[in-house]
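anyone seen this seq b4? input:
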Amino acid sequence: MSTRNTMLRSMHDVGLAAWFGGSLMGAVGLNGAARDEGGTRAATARIASSGWARWTPVNAAAIAVHLFGSGGLLAVNAPRVAAQQGVAASTLAKSVLTGAALAATAYSRVLGKKIELASSSDPQDAEKAAKHPVDTDRAQRHLAFMQWAVPAVTGGLVILNALHGEQQRPTEQFHGMWERARSLAPHMTSHGHFLH
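predicted toks r here
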């Protein structure tokens, strides 16, 4: 009989929800509002950069909470991952997508920081930007792509999370474990028939 892991599941789900929702809102709402209100390219970049900078610590906390919950769930479900056919594959896919989402998020922040420094009216920021010049047009194109990549990839994680929920149904667990046992012992019959 399975035990409850409500805290780990909550951390996993709430962290992922904030990561996905915040990145989607930023790409749609924040960037759109910055374009509408900025007037100039530099002002648009300043507004968007300011908003993303405010979101960064919250996003980092959400990611950390999600990763903690995810790691905890993986640890408690390790026997099922090993024994139930299909769970290891979906877990691997989830791990790959999580890595991609982390990389996209980190790269977005690096690009955003470069644009923030290049568009800043602060003399110290301008001095830092002069020491590390950046092609702002190219950086903004890459950033626009990455800011859409993050909600796309984290949305994929939400879908895989739904699949994991389905795989935890008792009938799915029985079927998956039976199929795993059959693959390890191919002479066994299908679960609808018995050996004579």
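Confidence is low (pLDDT under 50) at residues 190-196. The CA atoms of residues 26 and 52 lie 7 Å apart. kinda curious what u guys think
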